[in-house]
């Protein structure tokens, strides 16, 4: 007897052998058949979809779930349009706090504000309190004088980590802007977060994700560095799962900083490495930063950024190249997959060189190392990625949210390299869907699909129209493509016998509506392992 028989649906299976279906059978959390294979079988629960569109569950191949969940409890600055509005918000928040309370905001956009917040103005608005405002890219933060004092920046005792920068004005004084690894100076004042607080953040994020159709996410960096929140961060996921609050399957990327020598190998304690875990929570690749970001002009580029930086403005590598090389090679030799954050073309050059060396030293066919973001991919990179079976994981939604900023930083002649899609298809590479949330203010997968198809910026410009893909390819990016990036294409990303019963019921067909309407499609229900994590009341699904 089936656990669930879902009938009267219009399913886009993404299975070439059976591309559409009207009936889906589920047993033991997996799909056991479609249409005539299951239509007459008895089931504990029979649900009529009333003609709803059904697709495989959506996957976000690169997000920051804990961080996004924490941001939901912080002051939202993503819609602030003027410096005056920002300072008013800071003042209003400060008024609610004791004299030593921290004002923490996230998501401000220097492009929209015409510059980063002014340190003196933050001091006035915050009444001398610690004020910590996180840039929308996550690669920068602006802080008040009190935090500069606490970190030791003002008295010169602070040691800025490699790959970080403390901005100084013409007078040599810190402006309050901390870039890249320099953010660890603030992190040391507040981390580690209590594991219970992180579990609560996961709970908040997971509920939002379920409502958007997400059934799988990859957490891009936990446990250490400026991207991690606690050495016990994985335990927060276990807690959320144990209490029934984790609505997605999750792959965790440990940060490079938490891997170390273990009995002549390189990895986590007990010898844990990529693949440890189960179908709901498992360890994925090692995450390592090789550079910064385009919006902060800290990505490592071969030719200088346009504008104020001058001929020496080539961004920042995440560490000394040989340090990065040693870490990636050690991870490769230790049995890890590697997810290298590489945005600028100079960082991609270095990353591919190291991956190539790693495969020469120890061939590991099918390992599928990844380049997270791959934001400035030169034409010659494409063939190298394909030859090495390296998976690029870009975020098309950045084109909408900061595409105009990127064009200002790199110039129109380099824009065809930015957040490619069609070129990946033509080179035989997968198109992988991801958001990098909360580095985007709106990270829903349907919005990501729309950006893959349209490639529009906020100003309405189309960024490199030749890089657009069609709506079906965009849907595949957030299903089969993301599954491929995790080496799980055999169990998820399709509606087929033996795959996980992770499904999304939609109001409309994302491959048939006008491109501009893809992001507006409503999510009726989301199922993980055949159980509703969103929309249970509407459809009376088991849950």
Automatic annotation (TrEMBL):
EC number: 3.5.-.-
UniProt entry tagged with the keyword Hydrolase: yes
Record's protein name: Amidohydrolase
One Pfam family linked to the record: Amidohydro_3
Signal peptide coordinates: none
Keyword set includes 4Fe-4S: no
All copies of domain Amidohydrolase, residue ranges: 46-534
Protein source organism: Prauserella salsuginis
């Amino acid at each position: 007897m089936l656990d669930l028989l879902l009938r009267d649906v219009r399913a886009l299976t993404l299975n070439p052998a059976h591309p559409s279906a009207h009936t889906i059978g589920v047993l033991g959390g997996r799909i056991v058949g479609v249409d005539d294979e299951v239509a007459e079988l008895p089931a504990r629960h029979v649900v009529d979809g009333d003609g709803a569109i059904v697709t495989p569950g959506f996957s976000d191949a690169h997000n920051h779930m804990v961080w996004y969940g924490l941001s939901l409890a912080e002051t939202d600055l993503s819609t602030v349009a003027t410096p005056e509005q920002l300072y008013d918000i800071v003042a209003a928040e400060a008024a609610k706090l004791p004299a030593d309370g921290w004002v923490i905001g996230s998501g401000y956009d220097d492009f929209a504000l015409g510059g980063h917040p002014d340190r003196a103005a933050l001091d006035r608005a915050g009444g001398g309190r610690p004020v910590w405002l996180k840039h929308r890219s996550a690669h920068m933060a602006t802080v008040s004088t009190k935090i500069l004092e606490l970190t030791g920046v003002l008295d010169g005792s602070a040691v800025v980590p490699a790959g970080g920068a403390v901005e100084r004005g013409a007078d040599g004084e810190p402006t309050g802007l901390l870039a890249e690894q320099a953010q660890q100076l603030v992190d040391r004042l507040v981390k580690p977060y209590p594991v219970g607080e992180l579990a609560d953040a996961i709970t908040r994020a997971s509920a939002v994700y379920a409502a958007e159709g997400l059934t799988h996410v990859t957490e891009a960096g936990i446990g250490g560095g400026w991207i991690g929140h606690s050495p016990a961060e994985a335990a927060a996921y276990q807690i959320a799962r144990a209490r029934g609050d984790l609505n997605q399957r999750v792959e965790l990327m440990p940060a490079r900083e938490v891997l170390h020598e273990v009995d002549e190998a390189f990895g986590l304690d007990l010898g844990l490495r990529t693949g440890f875990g189960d179908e709901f929570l498992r360890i994925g690749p090692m995450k390592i930063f090789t550079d910064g970001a385009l919006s902060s002009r800290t990505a490592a580029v071969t030719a200088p950024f346009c504008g104020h930086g001058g001929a020496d403005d080539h961004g920042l590598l995440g560490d000394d190249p040989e340090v990065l090389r040693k870490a990636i090679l050690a991870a490769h030799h230790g049995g890890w997959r590697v997810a290298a954050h590489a945005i600028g073309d100079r960082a991609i050059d270095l990353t591919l060189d190291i991956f190539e060396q790693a495969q020469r030293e120890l061939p590991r066919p099918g390992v599928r190392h990844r380049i997270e973001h791959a934001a400035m991919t030169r034409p010659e990179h494409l063939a190298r990625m394909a030859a090495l079976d390296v998976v690029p994981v870009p975020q098309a939604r950045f084109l909408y949210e900061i595409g105009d900023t990127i064009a200002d930083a790199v110039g129109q002649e380099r824009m065809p390299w930015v957040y490619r899609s069609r070129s990946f298809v033509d080179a035989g590479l997968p198109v992988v869907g991801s958001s990098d949330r909360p580095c985007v203010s709106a990270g829903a997968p349907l919005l990501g699909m729309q950006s893959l198809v349209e490639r529009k910026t906020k100003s309405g410009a189309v960024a490199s129209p030749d890089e657009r893909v069609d709506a079906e390819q965009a849907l595949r990016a957030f299903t089969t493509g993301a599954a491929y990036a995790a080496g799980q294409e055999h169990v998820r990303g399709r509606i087929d016998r033996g795959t996980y019963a992770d499904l999304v019921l939609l109001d409309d067909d994302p491959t048939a509506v006008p491109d501009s309407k893809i992001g507006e499609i409503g999510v009726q229900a989301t199922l993980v392992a055949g159980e509703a994590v969103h929309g249970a009341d509407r459809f009376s699904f088991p849950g």
